[in-house]
Amino acid sequence: xxxxxxxxxxxxxxxxxxxxxxxxxxxxxxxxxxxxxxxxxxxxxxxxxxxxxxxxxxxxxxxxxxxxxxxxxxxxxxxxxxxxxxxxxxxxxxxxxxxxxxxxxxxxxxxxxxxxxxxxxxxxxxxxxxxxxxxxxxxxxxxxxxxxxxxxxxxxxxxxxxxxxxxxxxxxxxxxxxxxxxxxxxxxxxxxxxxxxxxxxxxxxxxxxxxxxxxxxxxxxxxxxxxxxxxxxxxxxxxxxxxxxxxxxxxxxxxxxxxxxxxxxxxxxxxxxxxxxxxxxxxxxxxxxxxxxxxxxxxxxxxxxxxxxxxxxxxxxxxxxxxxxxxxxxxxxxxxxxxxxxxxxxxxxxxxxxxxxxxxxxxxxxxxxxxxxxxxxxxxxxxxxxxxxxxxxxxxxxxxxxxxxxx
Length: 407
Hints:
Structural class: alpha/beta
């Protein structure tokens, strides 16, 4: 079960002395933390703060998610709404194409009106229309543009996600976006290989990581091993996350004699499937479904859990692994072709990778993490402390600008 220990990602030089001058940077993403709370918005906010901290001027271009004045971030960062507030996801948890089109149009208009304002534009390739909007608006300018790929999907993934017609169109658009981008960046070797295969013009900028500063107040006393062990899941309830396999794994582990409970945080279209599994297995008093919870409660629940489980089959990076280890909580993931987050797990150091979602396989991996006890919690925290020095979002952000300004 699981994989062998993985080599660390390469270090990346981030010294600001290499920059020839102060530069003006725009980062474009249609979500903004904390008004939306996914991994991408956390990443790009950290990027903006890192660039500003290095002495650059930064505009964060996003949807208008606020009333009144734009939110304040950090000195040197301006948040700019380029499209109207809108509901991002449909009932199935998929992004709405019309919202993506509106944001791309707003991004195009802003960059066209401000040609010459920015030295560097980093545009999220999620959704991919952003890339074409920025490229067209900046065509012929001296602005250096990088398309940042949180994920690079296989053609089969697009077909499964969007159907045979829209899926083929989306796969083609991704391919064209890679080819049209002067520079591309990503955060896993898996996605770097895919960008090269899609025809990237230059070697992708492979960021060393996306670690923030979460968990700096780690306190081992927050975990009480005298209480029943709790498994926690954090995230959206969508098909790719495979949340509905968790109850069966918990049931298997309990049949093996473990006094085990679970808290499945978050919400989404698969919640009903999770509820059905809980009822079918008679786990109503064992598995809790609190939905989305406030930030302080989220950190408390993760820190007090014996293990965090994320059975996702698709992850572009896996920030939840980092955030769990920041609290000294080991993780259990599931091996899958499109799951780049398994590269963040050093077997027996900060968690384990299950070979499948079968109850006995996933359940056994959870028991291994729980049985490892305080020693695994300490090594998970030590893993995070090393990652916080070597795999940071700031290092990745500065690596992009360094590559573009030195190109």
